[in-house]
Amino acid sequence: MPSKTSYFKKELWKQAFRSFGWIGIGYFLALLFLLPLQIIMVKTKNDPNDINYFRQHVDGLFGINGEIQGILFLIIPMLAAVFTSRYMHVKGSADFIHSLPLRRSQLFTHQFLIGYMMILVPMCITACVLFVLSGVMDVEFIYQSKDILNWFYETLTFTTFLYAIAYCVGTLTGMSVVQGGLSFIFIIFPAGISALINENLNMLLEGFSVHNASFFSYSSNLTPIWWFIELSNKSNLEITNWIYGIYWLLSAVFIGISLMLYRIRPIESANQTIAFPLLKPIFKFGVTFCFMLLGGVYFGAVQQQSEGWMIFGYICGALFGYLLAKMLIQKTWRVFDQWKGFMIYIGISIVVILSVMFDWYGFEANVPEKEEVEGIYFVEQNTFNNWYGGRLDQKLEKSNITNPELMEKVINLHEYILANDHIGQYQDNIYMEKSTDIEIIYHLKNGKRMVRQYFIPSMDEVEEYVKPILESKEYKQSSLDWLNDKNNRIRSVAVSGYDYRQQVTDQQNINKITDALKQDYLKTSYEEMTHSRIYGESKYLEFEVESDQIYFYHVPLLDSYSKVLEVLEQEELDRGLTIHSTDVSMVAISNSQKNEESFYELPHMEEIDRNEWMLIEDSEQIEELINLNNDVDGTWEIAYYGPSDKNIIEAYQVSEDQLPSYVTDYFK
Q: What is the pTM of this model?
């Protein structure tokens, strides 16, 4: 009878284990030290502080040495793929193994599974050890059985995906070093190319916002490293399972592509940078394109987005990338006489870049008509402090301005920005105390969305348009939407003053404070809102809000918030909200608003111009000055400094008629 031959070739497995079985052994020992041994040490130590820490802060096995686990999940699949593919990359090994009486599909299956076992077996053994520990020791304060299954499934998902990518890259190249480098680049490519394109468009197009590039923002989320970090803190199981399914599907696709490529891969491609001649021009121009974008970003950033320097950066980056790709493909540095391909590439690229730079597509000048707009989401995001802003990403689908008159104000503001070249440009964005960024998101009646973002050098230039918007009830309610959202729970309120901070956890007091704040904030004037941003947060409320996660929101405690201050006084929560003479060691007064930003530097100046500043350290005069009232329309600036290193504790504007005569006489 004819004998049957087994599909399983044990000699291949023996040889492979002798060559690179150390990968699996090393991975198992690392997991053993990171998880079971760490858990045993915590349990045997039996420290109450450690137990409380794990109960409060560790949710699952990724909370134990999670950073090191993440590094292993990235490195081990790469190593396994590189070493199991090495027989294709070394000419002697390639000739020998392909001379064996085995089909290519058999060779592929054996080598792929050998490397995969280096990942799977250590994980299975570690999971079994964790199950045994949970049965013989009381470790419920660290993990439970379901945590082991979650850890195993999540780890297996990502390591399988990374291994499939790295192995697929191994079939495309003929060098192990290139395989390792390209595998890592391939993993971070979605996020990297998205960031480069976004940054270049941001420099080239006035009004471009990261929210314009929803496709690029989405593609950056495909990076498995990013998702591993997110899913380790999973809060939505439905989304989590959907993402897992995508990664398993992609893993199967990459494995299938690897098998198809391996079947047609030339044996003589061993020791070649790219195994398939058809892929060489794609590789060459891909590297050139990425370095071109990188060169534009670099020179644009260091030369304040000068268009000339950006073009220079594009040319230099493209030249470097083209030569590097040529050297890698040909494995020699003697490529400086091959310019034909580069000239064709750079010619096409320059035309494309100029078309964007000069806005041939009408992006910059596009302003929708009032009749086309259904609603607008408008946000003024001060660079230094955005007291009232919530989470922008959760608001993009909503409109906070639907009033026709306010929508017309926003459209007029948009047209005014475009008509004044010094406003809105990305170049020379030097943020001062009144600088800000404005983002406008039009929700059009045809269902589309139009997004623009502009840099405003000074709010004074656009006050006519911005003031009615910021003072509107619609805008204010959207700015404090977290305060008005009934699905949110405010867990605590911290009241911070000049030298004291106290936490409010009583729900009745929290409700009183929030109700009073809602009323006071709706009465806040534009001048008070902008004034609070300039001078900082010497007095503020910090809200700890629980929704899907825990968020903290800061709101300045303005002197005009009479209802809030009244509640704090009634509940004896106003300690530290009033400056006393004992809190102040020096007062600085200036009759020029140009000196606003110098208040913080004043105590550390070696020489002080006494014509610009009046410094007061007399206790009686300080007692008199701390009773001055804040006047946002005042033309005099006053600042108070504490005894500790004379750090500024408060600064505001006052009117001249409030000042004592000895102050006004000083500046005459």
A: 0.71
